[in-house]
Amino acid sequence: MTNTPIVPYIEGDSIGPEIWQATKNVVDTALELTYGGAKKIEWLEVLAGGKAFDQTGEWLPDETVTAIQKHKLAIKGPLNTPIGGGIRSLNVALRQTLDLYACVRPVRYFKGVPSPLKEPEKTEMTIFRENTEDVYAGIEFAAGSDEAKQLSDFLENTLGVTKIRFPETSSLGIKPISKEGSERLVKSAMDYAVAQELTRVTLVHKGNIMKFTEGGFKNWGYDMIEQDYPQAFTMNQYKKIAAENGEQAAEDALATARNEKKIVVDDVIADNLLQQILLYPEKFQVIATTNLNGDYISDALAAQVGGIGISPGANINYQSGHAIFEATHGTAPDIAGKGYANPCSLLLSATMLLDHLGWYEASQKITAAIEAAIEQKIVTKDFAQALGIQEVSTSQFADELIKLMK
Ligand code: NAI
Questions:
Q1: Which alpha helices (H) appear in 72-143, and where do they start and end?
Q2: Could you tell me which residue ranges the Isopropylmalate dehydrogenase-like domain spans (predicted)?
Q3: If you take atom 13 of ligand 1, which residue's CA is the nearest one?
Q4: Residue pLDDT, tens place only, 350-367
Q5: Which residues pair with 264 in a beta bridge?
Q6: Which atom of ligand 1 is found nearest the CA of 332?
Q7: What's the pLDDT at 94?
Q8: What is the mean pLDDT of residues 379-400?
């Protein structure tokens, strides 16, 4: 790995340029302070969204995708979803084109951030959301369309499906969930747990209702783990031991696994998980889940620890090495250009990029500065309003972080 990687960046729309500038200043300073010029990022601007459309007439120019393909890593601010014409979602297009199958969202609490929880510090986990399959594959047919009618006829006449309640007026969608897709996502979560020396991974699904898709995700996940991770003990194995040798033998095996610091892998139904992350968040360390569940869970957890202004994320293909690190919120047009935007979401995404490069010292420097700033009540308007204190602007916040790092 080079010490001067070229990393393409997409500034993003609306608040994008403000939070990008703040992020870039902080990251460049952290690298300079940590490595004195021996390691640095050469930023390469690539276009997408409104800026791309204004300059090239295209929302997502081919050169942008080519540059990310070539340089492997990229960072992006939020993009407006073009309305009328354009493509459906630039984010989805980028994820699909580069097959970025794991959406990784670490969730942690920064002391001092306004949170709706009494003990928000108990929420600390990383979500691995499958990013390429499920109802998000975009295979949908509008009610009344020829396609919906053909599909409905096929289901009824060829497959004998009689369960569509109102076939004439139903829109229809397809939910593909594959063995490969499930395995590679669960593997990402397991590898992360191994690398971070964590001891619990939870597969989240709705297999009680959707046995072959969501249930498949769970079963393929368990099977792969049992085959490839001798350092794990699954609740599937627990059940097998209980069935063969009784409950006590299974409990003993679980206790031994815990003593040996094995990774205990269990599974939880998605609706139950949404209760449990609120009631007992300390129980969870790594969550591996399907696309739609992951979408809901990520936002719920982000809200628990202070909201979207401080929630980072990355979309990664661990096999090809392609990864895009991104602010998880949208373009916030309501506050654009006012200096109100919190740059932490993009900045913490940048720390994930630094971790990905193995540049942990610089990443930790930034995280420590964010911790110190928030504890000292140096915050942007989103937090200041909730805390009833005076805010600093987006660029002032970046300047304060730089002072704290020095
Ligand atoms: P949004 O996330 O932009 O805004 C929701 C609320 O959160 C607003 O009140 C906004 O002011 C606030 N907010 C968001 N980021 C903030 C930050 N960094 N600091 C302080 N406050 C912040 O969601 P919305 O309004 O639904 O979407 C606006 C546009 O963003 C749409 O065009 C949407 O398609 C796009 N979008 C893009 C995403 C991406 O590029 N990853 C993700 C979600 C939405």
A1: 90-97
A2: 6-401
A3: 332
A4: 999 999 999 999 999 999
A5: 200, 233
A6: 3
A7: 86
A8: 96
- 303 alpha carbon – ligand 1 mean position (Å): 14
In this predicted structure, the answer to whether residue 256 has a pLDDT above a threshold of 70 is yes
Cα 79 to ligand 1 centre (Å): 9
Residue located nearest, by CA, to atom 22 of ligand 1: 309
Which active-site residues does the annotation give? 136, 206, 271, 295
For residue range 184-238, list pLDDT tens digits in order: 999 999 999 999 999 999 999 999 999 999 999 999 999 999 999 999 999 999 9
| Identity at 230, one-letter amino acid code | P
CA distance to 273, 297, 322, per residue, from 205 (Å): 9, 11, 26
Pocket of ligand 1 (CB under 6 A): 19, 78-81, 91, 308-309, 326, 329-335, 341-342, 345, 382
Rounded to 10 degrees, the C-alpha dihedral 212/214/220/225 comes to: -160
What is the pLDDT, as a whole number, of residue 209? 96
> Which of 59, 315, 325, 329, when mutated, tests ligand 1's pocket best, judged by the most ligand atoms within 8 Å of its CB?
329
Tell me which DSSP letter residue 208 carries: T
- The answer, yes or no, to whether residue 84 has pLDDT greater than 60, is no
* Integer Cα distance of 167 and 162 in angstroms: 9
Evaluate if pTM is beyond 0.85: yes
User: Ligand 1 centroid to 329 CA: how many Å?
Assistant: 5
Number of H helices, E strands in the chain: 15, 13
The strand ranges marked E within 197-344 are: 200-205, 232-234, 263-269, 286-289, 312-316, 323-327
Encoding tokens for residue 327? 């602010």
Q: Which of 99, 55, 39, 51 is nearest to 76 (CA)?
A: 51
Q: DSSP alpha helices (H): ranges in 305-343?
A: none
